[in-house]
Automatic annotation (TrEMBL):
Location of the protein in the cell: Cytoplasm
Designated name of the protein: Epoxyqueuosine reductase
Catalytic reaction annotation: epoxyqueuosine(34) in tRNA + AH2 = queuosine(34) in tRNA + A + H2O
Classification lineage: Bacteria, Pseudomonadati, Bacteroidota, Flavobacteriia, Flavobacteriales
Residues that coordinate or bind cob(II)alamin: R61, D132, N153, L156, I167, S214, C239, D240
Length: 308
């Protein structure tokens, strides 16, 4: 017979699966000792570029008990976003995670359901849901929870499913059974390092955020440096190069989340269509998409940068 802790753990994992999450792993809510010096050095070397927010809440990023009082467990969840169909060949490219509706809203909804389910089934459980917009080191927690290992491109990789998934978590004040990390399976492969056109992966397992195409096309609000001209390989929002070349992504399977399906026009648009895009078309295609973060003017800036 299962004890309460194991029963609660099974309940949560079963419900996560029912809600459509690809995987669920759980780890003890405690200070991230190994990550602390890494994060400190990364910030000290200005690898965050103009992403000043990365310097905020340093202590909270490393200690979940500062985010949720008396927290005991970090429940990490993966949600697949690998698409069934892709953009047409020879066009300006959008990162696959932004094909459909903004993942923050889609996942937040599922997390609320999961948290309410926990409260209904187990009782008075305190906790909070997090989807990448809060000071939580998602990949570190997912790795601790056995959902994969952090690869040389600094993405979480899974032998079964690759890396085209979102990571989210619930931090709760309930003790559960904890999973153990898996081993690293990057081996001697350097596909991601060799393929990165801006040399953002400056050494294995270390990424300079300020050199990443995703940073230039989404985070950077000023002009993209002229020195980067000709390096973007037609990526106008985000970049999937280091994931596309990763051998583990041959195991990626299409998601079954209707909200992540793209607007039909997105997949068909040619370079000419993008160069002539109007504000109205932008708002129609990206109505509920994460691409809205860059706004119409930001996307136009990126297209002009690729064009000339």
């Amino acid at each position: 017979m299962l004890n309460n802790t194991s029963r609660y753990t099974k309940l949560i994992k079963d419900e996560a699966k029912r809600l459509g999450f690809m995987s669920c792993g759980i780890s003890k809510a405690e200070f991230l000792e190994e990550e602390a010096p890494r994060l400190e050095n990364w910030l000290h070397e200005n690898r965050n570029g103009k992403m000043g927010y990365m310097e905020n809440y340093f202590d909270k990023r490393l200690d979940p008990t500062l985010l949720v009082d008396d927290s005991k467990s970090v429940v990490s969840l993966l949600l697949n976003y690998y698409p069934q169909n892709f953009q047409t060949e020879n066009t300006y490219k959008v990162s696959k995670y932004a094909y459909g509706q903004d993942y923050h809203f889609v996942i937040k909804d599922k997390l609320k359901h999961l948290l309410n389910f926990i409260k209904d089934e187990i009782g008075e459980v305190g906790g909070r849901a997090f989807v990448d917009s809060a000071p939580v080191l998602d990949k570190a927690w997912a790795a601790k929870s056995g959902l994969g290992w952090i690869g040389k491109n600094s993405n979480l990789l899974s032998k079964k499913t690759g890396s085209f998934f979102f990571i989210a978590e619930l931090i709760i004040d309930l003790e559960l059974d904890y999973d153990t990390p898996v081993t690293d399976h990057c081996g001697s492969c350097t596909a991601c390092i060799d393929a990165c056109p801006t040399d953002a992966i400056y050494e294995p397992y270390k990424v300079d955020g300020s050199k990443c195409i995703s940073y230039y096309t989404i985070e950077l609000k000023e002009s993209i440096p002229e020195s980067e001209k000709g390096k973007f390989e037609d990526w106008m929002f985000g970049c999937d190069i280091c994931q596309d070349v990763c051998p583990w992504n041959r195991f990626s399977k299409p998601h079954n989340e209707p909200l992540f399906n793209p607007h039909p026009d997105l997949l068909q648009m040619t370079k000419d269509d993008w160069e002539e895009i109007t504000k109205e078309t932008f708002q129609e295609i990206f109505k509920k998409s994460a691409v809205k973060r860059t706004k119409y003017d930001g996307l136009k800036r990126n297209i002009n940068f690729l064009e000339t």
